[in-house]
């Protein structure tokens, strides 16, 4: 009962605050308040640097601290596809970050830096927005800020809360859930992973990847509500979300699986981290029978994240060849799960 | 906390429920205030049209007599004579005054009125992220009836750094806003919520989405422009500054000197590779961007306070900034060939190492000739004079006359063409005597007597030893006072600069301050900038600095070489002499040391008053 009341008052509060914002949001009255809110939010925003830097792929994105111990929520992207992820805090301190886990279905990732006592958002305290809610977007768009320079702040309104799925085939994304569509141009290069907050500084959502509508050639400005991500983020933080690579050599079976047995030929492994794209599938192999196709990008093996050809081969060493294996691939813009039967005994 | 917040919220709700008109009134009141502020501010906005009808942009008037700011990249396309439309629907002729190609600023003057609506200059160092702001201008050149467009937004960030194209169009310490800035807004004003001018809109980040606003526009801060305004009024092609050192950021967040030119002033002041830059121009430096921001807001030759740390010890030194370009290099970039990309509103993809010295080339390619100019209107022709190195030499002569006429109003010594005899007491004890004339300058000091002939080449006239050339400098001071700027030798109005003698003696007022002791140096020092006349005689370059209030000559610097410190003379304690004012205290400095300070007790200027 107490809990229910709390919830009701929280909802009422957000509605009331919207009214206050309408009154105080006028330029003369609202300016001081915004600066204060911005000052509270900035320490929670981080700059992330990683892979990229060529062909219009920026080597940076944004993120937000979600624990005092250095957990960072950001978008899952090619930027994180490296062993050298750097996170720069608002005060200019630089850390090498560890990728704790990622869920490509939600296009989120959780990083960890080795620090304590950090100012951060509590995901449990995140709130919701309605159409018309005034919002501020924090991100390091265009990589404008470096070191201890604060992230960029933009203002706008939530235009609508809508399903991205409805636009399937139009936007190149694996995320199919609800998003806040914004009236401000927030989703610029480098902005993904930034925070969307209300005028009270309360966390609402995370700015998503740049999405271009392939029919109208327009860009979508949107953010993914925290409520869609909170459970997964908790699971990653607590280690229940088992999608990290296996790293206990003593668990390897005597006769492990390998790519040849499954009938999968990957693209030539020429980079330090070659993305595991399927180059060819041997006829009548377990992969062929399960429907694996050339150009599929392998993301998970038995729900464990594999970020490279080497990682995929390594992961198979933990699977006994008498067992079936679940493989998750990205095909086009869809995530597809397939189960490959145990290969027939070698003659 | 939440409970009390709820209460506050409830009370607001209650009032809006019981009297729905109350909240509504507040909204309407705020809206009416905003409308009034915008209505006032937009009066000063200018729509600039190229004389040939090709292209244009925006601007803003900042004085009643029509001085207006815009972007260099707007005026260079528009030509030296422009047509400017204002919100009153009238079209005015305008002429270029001065340009700052590195900072992308141009000063022009609208003609025909002495009561132009003009913007009030704000203090951009007080601007912070989240402040409401609005841009006024001529986006997409919509204002065919001169009615400016207004776009509202917030400040997204301050002290931003945006890379130059080659060496031009560098946006340092700029203001980032999410108010829509589109092509055509360039050169137009960014106002704060009170309608004070805080910046000149000039570029945005666009990248792959085409050249329309994506919520990321940049304005040149008005405080930076205040530092350059005197130089711009001089009708000059103005350069920016470098330290002569390359800096790099370290993993621990320190910014250190990677290398340094050994003929730079910073080197002479003690800066060496490996030293940590702690503060510069009054700001704590923790990124290379922050360092470049400080460099960008000051004109070359200004002296700025630098704090560096070596082995745990910190040193405060005033550093004289050097030019990004050699004078000829900049002029040939701007006047020798077309200066830049046609419309440089995009962030430049060029990447350099942090702090890398600006490349000496990489200059933009020449662009095709612009549309054929119409003949210059007579009204414009009357205030326009071409001369290499100047955007409009007419205004240099205007300012030079203004400064000199102010000075001689109380201190006209043009009759004192004979020998000058100055006797006084040295600050450290002992007597000093100086004899200055066209043929020689001599002095008698406790150490002995010395005499320097005034020849056609004074570049090696460094006597007395350790003074940097005090005797030659004193005679050149006499030369200016007697002959005036037109006969001194190739003398022009340089602009304004802070008087930066590092002494803060009690009898030397706040005039003698080094930039950087204040949190906001540009704004705080603005009122104390001196007018500077620069001239060359007998191979040495001299700078003469005048107090803008009294008109008195307060300092001079004599440069015998680019690679050596100047000899600095400071003049103070002006007192009456035969109905005119003459300084009674002279201090001579060279490098980091005071060479002497003398209090004059006897002044005899030969031929003074003779007919």
The value of Rg of chain A in angstroms is 22 Å
Form type of chain B: globular
Order of helices and strands of chain A: HHEEEEEEEEEEEEEEHHEEHEEHEE
Using the 3D structure, state the CATH architecture of the largest domain in chain A: Beta Barrel
Quick synopsis:
With 347 residues, chain A is of the alpha+beta class.
Question: Can you give a write-up of this model?
Answer:
- The complex is a heterodimer of chains A (347) and B (611).
- Chain A is α+β, with helices and mostly antiparallel strands and 347 residues long.
- Chain A has two domains: 11-238, Thrombin, subunit H (Beta Barrel); 249-340, Roll (Pdz3 Domain).
- Chain A is built from six helices and 20 strands.
- A six-stranded antiparallel beta barrel of chain A has the order 1-2-3-6-5-4. A six-stranded antiparallel β-barrel of chain A has the order 7-8-9-14-11-10.
- The model of chain A is unreliable at 1-31 (pLDDT under 50).
- In chain B, helix 1 (2-18) crosses helix 2.
- Chain B folds into three domains: 20-239 and 331-385, Thrombin, subunit H (Beta Barrel); 241-323, Pdz3 Domain (Roll), CATH 2.30.42.10; 397-605, Clam (outer membrane lipoprotein receptor (LolB), chain A), CATH 2.50.20.
- Chain B has 611 residues and is of the alpha+beta class.
- Chain B is globular.
- In chain B, the strands form six sheets. In chain B, strands 25-24-23-22-32-31-30-29-28-27-26 form an eleven-stranded antiparallel beta sheet. A six-stranded antiparallel beta barrel of chain B has the order 1-2-3-6-5-4.
- The interface between A and B is large, with 44 and 49 residues.
Blueprint (SSEs and pairs):
The complex is a heterodimer of chains A (347) and B (611).
Chain A: H1 2-24, H2 27-41, E1 45-49, E2 60-65, E3 71-75, E4 85-88, E5 94-103, E6 108-112, E7 134-139, E8 152-163, E9 178-182, E10 195-198, E11 203-207, E12 211-213, E13 218-220, E14 222-225, H3 226-238, H4 259-262, E15 264-266, E16 278-281, H5 286-290, E17 297-301, E18 304-305, H6 309-316, E19 325-331, E20 334-340
Antiparallel strand pairs in A: 1-2, 1-4, 2-3, 3-6, 4-5, 5-6, 7-8, 7-10, 8-9, 9-14, 10-11, 11-14, 12-13, 15-16, 17-18, 17-19, 19-20
Chain B: H1 2-18, H2 20-42, E1 45-50, E2 56-61, E3 67-70, H3 72-78, E4 81-86, E5 91-100, E6 105-110, E7 120-121, E8 132-137, E9 149-162, E10 171-177, E11 189-192, E12 196-204, E13 217-221, H4 222-233, E14 241-242, E15 245-249, E16 255-260, H5 265-268, E17 276-280, E18 283-284, H6 288-296, E19 303-310, E20 313-320, E21 322-323, H7 327-336, H8 378-381, H9 393-411, E22 420-426, E23 431-436, E24 440-445, E25 448-453, H10 470-483, H11 485-488, E26 492-498, H12 521-525, E27 529-537, E28 540-546, E29 553-559, E30 567-577, E31 580-590, E32 593-605
Parallel strand pairs in B: 7-12
Antiparallel strand pairs in B: 1-2, 1-4, 2-3, 3-6, 4-5, 5-6, 8-9, 8-11, 9-10, 10-13, 11-12, 12-13, 14-21, 15-16, 17-18, 17-19, 19-20, 22-23, 22-32, 23-24, 24-25, 26-27, 27-28, 28-29, 29-30, 30-31, 31-32
Helix pairs in contact in B: 1-2
């Amino acid at each position: 009962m107490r809990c229910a009341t709390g919830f009701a008052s929280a909802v009422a509060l957000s509605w009331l605050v919207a009214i206050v914002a309408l009154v105080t949001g006028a330029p003369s009255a609202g300016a001081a308040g915004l600066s204060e809110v911005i000052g509270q939010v900035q320490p929670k925003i981080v700059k992330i640097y990683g892979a990229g830097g060529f062909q219009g792929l920026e080597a940076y994105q944004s993120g937000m601290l979600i624990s005092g111990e250095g957990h960072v929520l950001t978008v899952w992207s090619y930027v994180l596809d490296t062993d050298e992820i750097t996170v720069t805090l608002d005060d200019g301190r630089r850390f090498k970050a560890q990728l704790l886990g990622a869920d490509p279905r939600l296009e989120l990732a959780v990083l960890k830096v080795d620090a304590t006592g950090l100012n951060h958002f509590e995901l449990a305290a995140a709130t919701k927005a309605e159409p018309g809610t005034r919002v501020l977007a924090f991100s390091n768009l265009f990589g404008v800020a470096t070191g201890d320079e604060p992230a960029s702040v933009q203002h706008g309104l939530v235009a609508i809360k809508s399903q991205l799925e409805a636009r399937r085939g139009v936007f190149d994304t694996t995320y199919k859930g609800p998003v806040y569509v914004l009236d401000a141009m927030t989703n610029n290069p480098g902005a993904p992973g930034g925070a969307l907050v209300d005028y009270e500084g309360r966390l609402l959502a995370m700015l998503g990847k740049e999405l271009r509508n392939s029919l109208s050639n327009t860009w979508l400005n949107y953010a993914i509500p925290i409520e869609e991500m909170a459970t997964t983020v908790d699971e990653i933080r607590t280690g229940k979300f088992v999608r990290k690579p296996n790293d206990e050599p003593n668990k390897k079976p005597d006769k492990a699986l390998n790519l040849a047995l499954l009938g999968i030929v990957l693209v030539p492994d020429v980079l330090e981290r070659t993305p595991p794209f399927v180059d060819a599938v041997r006829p009548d192999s377990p992969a062929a029978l399960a429907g694996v196709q050339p150009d599929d990008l392998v993301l998970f093996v038995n729900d464990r994240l594999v970020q490279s050809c080497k990682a995929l081969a390594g992961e198979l060493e933990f699977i006994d060849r008498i067992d079936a294996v679940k493989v998750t691939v990205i095909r086009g813009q869809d995530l597809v799960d397939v189960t490959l039967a145990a290969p027939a005994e070698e003659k | 906390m939440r409970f009390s917040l709820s209460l506050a919220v409830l009370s607001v709700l209650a009032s809006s429920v019981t009297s729905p008109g109350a909240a509504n009134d507040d909204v309407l009141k705020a809206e009416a205030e905003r409308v009034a502020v915008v209505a006032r501010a937009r009066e000063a906005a200018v729509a600039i049209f190229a004389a040939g009808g090709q292209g244009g942009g925006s601007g803003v008037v900042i004085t009643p007599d029509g001085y207006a700011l815009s972007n260099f990249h707007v005026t260079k396309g528009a030509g030296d004579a422009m047509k400017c439309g204002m919100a009153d629907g009238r079209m005015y002729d305008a002429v270029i005054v001065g340009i700052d190609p590195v900072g992308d600023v141009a000063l022009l003057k609208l003609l025909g009125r002495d009561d132009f609506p003009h913007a009030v200059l704000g203090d951009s160092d007080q601007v912070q992220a989240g402040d409401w702001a609005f841009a006024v201008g001529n986006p997409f050149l919509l204002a065919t009836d001169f009615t400016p467009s207004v776009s509202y937004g917030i400040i997204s960030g301050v002290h931003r750094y945006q890379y130059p194209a080659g060496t031009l169009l560098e946006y340092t310490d700029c203001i980032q806003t999410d108010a829509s800035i589109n092509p055509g807004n360039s050169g137009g004003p960014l106002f704060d919520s009170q309608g004070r001018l805080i910046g000149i809109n000039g570029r945005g980040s666009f990248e792959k989405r085409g050249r329309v606003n994506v919520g990321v526009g940049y304005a040149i801060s008005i405080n930076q422009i205040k530092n350059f305004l005197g130089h711009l009024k001089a009708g000059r092609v103005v350069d920016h500054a470098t330290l002569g050192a390359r800096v790099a950021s370290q993993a621990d967040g320190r910014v250190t000197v990677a290398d340094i030119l050994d003929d730079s002033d910073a080197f002479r002041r003690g800066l060496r590779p490996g030293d940590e830059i702690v503060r510069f121009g009054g700001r704590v430096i923790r990124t290379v961007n922050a360092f470049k921001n400080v460099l960008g807001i000051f004109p070359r030759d200004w002296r700025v306070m630098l704090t560096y740390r070596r082995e745990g010890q910190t040193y405060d030194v005033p550093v004289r900034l050097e030019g990004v370009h050699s004078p000829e290099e900049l002029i040939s970039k701007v006047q020798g060939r077309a200066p830049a990309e046609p419309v440089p509103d995009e962030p430049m993809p060029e990447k350099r190492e942090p702090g890398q010295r600006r490349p000496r080339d990489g200059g933009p390619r020449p662009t095709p000739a612009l549309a054929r100019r119409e003949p210059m209107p007579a009204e414009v022709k009357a205030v326009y004079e071409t001369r290499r190195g100047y955007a409009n030499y007419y205004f240099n002569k205007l300012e030079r006359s203004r400064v000199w006429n102010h000075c001689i109003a109380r201190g006209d010594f043009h009759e004192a063409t004979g020998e000058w005899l100055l006797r006084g007491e040295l600050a450290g004890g002992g007597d000093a005597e100086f004899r200055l004339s066209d043929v020689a300058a001599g002095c008698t000091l406790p150490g002995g007597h010395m005499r320097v002939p005034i020849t056609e080449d004074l570049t090696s006239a460094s006597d007395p030893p350790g003074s940097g050339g005090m005797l030659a400098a004193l005679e050149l001071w006499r030369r200016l006072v007697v002959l005036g700027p037109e006969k001194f030798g190739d003398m022009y109005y340089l602009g304004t600069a802070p008087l930066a003698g590092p002494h803060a003696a009690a009898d030397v007022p706040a005039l003698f301050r080094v930039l950087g002791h204040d949190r906001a140096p540009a704004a705080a020092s603005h009122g104390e900038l001196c007018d500077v006349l620069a001239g060359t005689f007998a191979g040495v370059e001299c700078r003469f600095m005048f107090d803008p209030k009294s008109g008195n000559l307060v300092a001079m610097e004599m440069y015998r070489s680019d690679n050596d410190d100047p000899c600095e003379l400071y003049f103070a304690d002006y007192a009456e002499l035969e109905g005119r004012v003459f300084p009674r205290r002279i201090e001579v400095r060279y490098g980091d040391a005071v060479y002497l300070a003398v209090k004059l007790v006897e002044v005899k200027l030969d031929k003074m008053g003779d007919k």
